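Residues pack. Consider this:
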Amino acid sequence: MLRHHSLIFVRILTCSVRSVRYVYGTNHSQCECDEPLLLHYLSNGCHHEARNLLQNSSGGDLHARVVRWTKLLSNFSRHGYVAEARTLYDIMPHRNLFTSNVMLTAWGIDDYDGRLHRGLVRMYSGLGIMDSARNVFESNLKDSDDQCFNSMINGYVRAGQLARAQELFDMVPTRNKVASTCMISGYLSAGRVLEAWNLFNDMPDRDSIAWAEMIYGYVQNELIAEAFCLFSEMMDRGVPPMSSTYAVLFGAMGSVAYLDQGRQLHVITPYNMRSWVNFTKFLTGASTVGGIAIPSILKHAGVIGWGAFAMELSSYFVFGLTVICYLWMGDEDEYSIL
C-alpha cells in the first residue's frame, strides 16, 4: 500500500514538472526546485502550503522576491494557467503596481467571480491612486461589494475629496459602520462637526473605532468638554475604549488644564494601557497652572504617574523643585480628598 501511494505521488510531481517546463522551458530561475511543487500546490488548492513555499524558498531582498513572483504570475497567465495565476496573486505575501498590472491583463482573460476586480479597487484606493481605483470600480459595478465601497470612500476621505466620498456613500446599498466611520472622520477633518454628530448618532452599531473617531474629532476641533462627555457616555454604555482614545484625551485634558478630569482619567485607565508618555502630556499642560494641585494628582498616580513626573522634571526643573518643596511641607489641598 505504501509503495502504491508513493508511485501516485511521483506521477503527480512528474506531471507538475512537465507543466512547469512547458511554461518556462529549460532555463529555470533561482528557485527551480520549488516551481514544480508550487504549480502542484496551486493546481490542487493547497493555498497554505503554496504561500509557505513562497515565503520560505525565495532568496534575495523583498524587491527581488516580488519581481520573481511577478514573473511567475506573468508566465502562468500567458500560457493559459489563469486559475493558477489568480491563486498565486491572492496568496502572494507582497505585491507592487506592476504585479497588479500583470494580473489586470489576466483579469481581461478570466475574472468570472470578480475577485481581482475587488482586489484592485482596494489596492489602488489604499495607495491613494483614486483615478485608477474609480476606473476599475466603475468598470464592473456588479462585482463591487461593501468592501469596495468602503475602500473607495476611505480613499477619497484620505485624499481630501469629501464630495466624491459623499457621492459614493449615498450609493451604498446598505450603510455599514465602516463606511459611516470613514465619513465621520472626513466630516470632522473638514470642521463639519454637526454633520459628523448626526451621522454618528444615527449609527445603529457603534464600535470602539467609531467612538474613537468622534472623540478625536472633537479634540481636533477644540471641543474638549464635549470629547470628555462623549467618553463618559461611551464608558456608561460599556464600550471598551481603545488605547489611542486615552492618549488623545490625556493630551486634551492637559492642554486646557482639566486637572480633576485628567486625574480621574488616569485612575480609570486599565493598567495595561497606562503610559508614561500619556501622563506626561497631561502633566505638561497641568504644570501651566502652578504647583498647588499637582502633588495630589501624583498621590494617586502610581508607578506610571511618578515615572511620567520624573520625565517632566527633566524639562521643568524649576517647577519640579516647587513641587518637591510642597511635598516636603506635607500640606493638604482641595484635591487630596478626592
Remarks:
- The mean pLDDT is 70.
- The chain has 20 helices and no strands.
